[in-house]
């Protein structure tokens, strides 16, 4: 009985890993069940037996990928009292993470309309939480808060890292300084 459960678990893991690899290589929109089955060394029927619908397969794929590529710790950012220092730390950690996360995330963002709704909802919720954590302490309201929120969201986006570092040739530390300056430019001058 234990050997059967282990075999089932191993098959499920192979299918999940094959899905992750295909999503990272060609993107979710171009990934087919046939390609997953072939890469995992199973039949299409086996894929469907383990994952009866796209939601189940995408959820397993997402959980597996996130375990391999954990995002920077939002709680640790909150422990930094100075907002500018917190921003620098967040961007430094985010850009280091982007080096391994960008191949998958760029394809997820590109193919988001073809994926189950929960993927976009999870991404939006995470983005909102990260932006909110970095806005604390700047004291912006109204339009200034809107500008700051947009600047932080842009700075944190993996596409920004790709543009500046992967394609633009900047080092991560240079991109951190550039985007920190851009975000701080959105903060109204504070009275001394």
Can you describe this structure in just a few lines?
Helix content is 75%, strand content 0%. The protein has helices spanning 2-25, 33-40, 44-50, 54-68, 74-78, 83-110, 117-135, 142-156, 158-166, 172-185.
Structure, described:
The protein starts with a helix and ends in a 7-residue tail after the last helix. It has two domains: 2-67, Tetracycline Repressor, domain 2, CATH 1.10.357.10; 70-185, Orthogonal Bundle (Tetracycline Repressor, domain 2), CATH 1.10.357. The chain is mainly α. Helix 6 packs across helix 10 (172-185). 75% of the residues lie in helices and 0% in strands. It has helices at residues 2-25, 33-40, 44-50, 54-68, 74-78, 83-110, 117-135, 142-156, 158-166, 172-185. The longest helix has 28 residues, at 83-110.
Radius of gyration: 20 Å
What is the name of the CATH topology of the largest domain? Tetracycline Repressor, domain 2
Unreliable residue stretches: none
Order of helices and strands: HHHHHHHHHH
| CATH classification class of the largest domain | Mainly Alpha
Rough shape? elongated
Structurally, how many domains make up the residues?
Answer: 2
How widely separated are the two ends?
Answer: 71 Å
Structural class: mainly alpha
Approximate strand percentage? under 5%
Mean pLDDT: 94
Strand element count = 0
What characterizes the major β-sheet?
none
Q: Supply the CATH architecture of the largest domain.
A: Orthogonal Bundle
Q: Compute the number of helices.
A: 10
């Amino acid at each position: 009985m234990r050997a059967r459960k282990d075999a089932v678990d191993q098959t499920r893991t192979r299918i999940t890993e094959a899905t992750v690899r295909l999503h990272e290589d060609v993107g979710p929109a171009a990934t087919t069940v046939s390609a997953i089955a072939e890469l995992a060394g199973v039949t299409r029927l086996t894929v469907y037996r383990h994952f009866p619908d796209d939601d189940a397969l995408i959820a397993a794929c997402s959980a597996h990928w996130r375990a391999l590529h954990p995002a920077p710790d939002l709680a640790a950012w909150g422990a930094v009292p100075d907002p500018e220092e917190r921003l620098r730390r967040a961007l430094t950690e985010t850009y280091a993470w982007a080096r391994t996360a960008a191949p998958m995330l760029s394809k997820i963002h590109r193919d988001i309309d073809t994926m189950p709704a929960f993927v976009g909802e999870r991404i939006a919720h995470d983005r909102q939480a990260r932006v909110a954590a970095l806005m604390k302490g700047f004291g912006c309201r109204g339009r200034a808060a809107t500008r700051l929120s947009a600047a932080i969201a842009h700075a944190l986006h993996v596409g920004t890292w790709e543009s500046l570092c992967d394609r633009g040739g900047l080092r991560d530390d240079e991109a951190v300084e550039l985007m920190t300056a851009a975000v701080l430019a959105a903060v109204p001058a504070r009275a001394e």
